[in-house]
C-alpha cells in the first residue's frame, strides 16, 4: 500500500504479507481494508484508493455483498470507506499495473520497517 501526494510523489508505504491465503479477490479486499484502516488511523480525511481488480471495485461501488466467499470482507470495506466522505475508490486498468508495482517496490525500499504480517486463516476463524 502506497500513499502518493497529488503530485504523485511517495509519501508513505506499508507492506502486508498474507499467510495462508491463495485467493486473489480476498487478497485485494483485505489489502484495501488494511489500507483504508491505515490512512484513517493516520488521520487522513481525503483519499482516493485505486485498484486494478475490476470485479472487486465494482462490487464495492455497487455495495454488492451477496458473494458468500467475500461478503463479510466487502461489508467491512464498504463500511470503512463510508466513514469518511472524503474517501473515494476507482478502478485503474491493468495497463497501469506495471507502474503501480514499480511504485510499490520503490516505496517499500524507502519504508521497509513498515511491513507486517497478516494471517488470513486466523482472521477467518475469528469471523466464524
TrEMBL record:
It comes from the Eukaryota. Gene3D superfamilies: Ribonuclease H-like superfamily/Ribonuclease H. Coiled coil: none annotated. Pfam families: RVT_3. Transmembrane segments: none annotated. InterPro entries: RNase_H-like_dom_plant, RNase_H-like_EbsB-rel, RNaseH_domain, RNaseH_sf. CDD domains: RNase_H_like. One of its GO terms (molecular function) is RNA-DNA hybrid ribonuclease activity. Residues 2-107 form the RNase H type-1 domain. This is RNase H type-1 domain-containing protein.
